[in-house]
Amino acid sequence: MKNQILSVAAAICMLFSISCKKSEDQATANLRFINMSPNSSAMDLYLNSALVVGNVSYPGPSSYQSINAAATSLSVNQATTANILLAGNIALAANNHYSAIVYDSVAILKGDIFQDDRTDPPAGKAFVRFFNYVSGTPSLDLIKAGNTSNKLFTSRTYLDHKTTGSYVSYTAIDPGPFSVSAVVAGTNVLITQLPSFEATAGKSYTLVLRGFNKGTGNQAVFLSPIQDK
Questions:
Q1: Can you tell me the distance from the alpha carbon of 79 to that of 59, in angstroms, rounded to the nearest whole number?
Q2: Is the overall model pTM greater than 0.90, yes or no?
Q3: If you placed Cys at 97, which of 116, 143, 215, 220 could pair as Cys (CB 3.0 to 4.6 Å)?
Q4: Residue 87: pLDDT over 60
Q5: Reduced DSSP (H G I as helix, E B as strand, rest coil) percent helix, strand, coil of the chain, to 5
Q6: What is the extent of the structural domain holding 186?
């Protein structure tokens, strides 16, 4: 009987040892969820049917969450329900950071997932990039106004970061404060403005054009910063 008890105890110890080792060896990545659907309610993000982050409302991003890099499926649900709004397959690499973004009207919801560059900006600089998620907007220039005025980005269009890989990369800028205006490319016709943006040295940001073209209220076109790092 004593030998049987010792055998069971040894088996339990071995089981816990294997379980712990498996957990320690599990490859992980980091994922955040950004809701850019102007007329949506809060959403939940699932990987392999397991909740990663919940109740993400427009236009806020979640913080990065540590996830299993071996996950192969992603779904976005109406918050706290089983109503799936968008679903698809994914392929992630361990030790990387990713952003999953949903956009457009909730009735025709679309999504992106891409790897985030975690490289530090040059000393004394900040990083910035621009994504346009407003369908129907003309080609745009983004103009920075502060101690000096200059064009941050030129001739940018709806979702062009999906077809031009370099647009996912960052541009180094001097730290703020300053304002940023989105104007029709080659003109001074204002579409929208970020009146005050405090860019901090050593940080990375994505400027996002969001809303509906000709939308009003909370669904109007806005230019917003998201801190990436």
A1: 15
A2: no
A3: 116
A4: yes
A5: 15, 45, 40
A6: 120-229
